Amino acid sequence: MRPQLLTIEVTGLDAGTARLRLTGDLDFDTAPELVEAAAGVRADGHRALIIDLGGVGLCDSSGLSAFVVLSQGGAGPVRLTGVSARLQQLLDRTGLAELLAVQEQPAAGAGDDVREVG
Question: Most buried of the four, 46, 69, 75, 109, by CB within 10 Å?
Fold first, then answer.
């Protein structure tokens, strides 16, 4: 199976917060793209980041490392949303769930059309 390229859609929610919606695979080849995109968003003045992982099919250790880099940059809080059960399990096993703010995934079908508006 071919790896799925990563796309990152950036939305400024307010003066201090931006959402980065990821689609594709977050792995060794693409994790630097997330770190670079987050640095650009923060350079634009957005300190708090919401990383929407609802469209991520695969996240390996490089993706997990990117989350650590973003959270330890000291520039502002990082919150993960759209975390799959498999990724949540990885975050729990590695202890990263305690380091990162992870938003609970709603029950299947509940709030599927709800989007954060800023």
Answer: 46
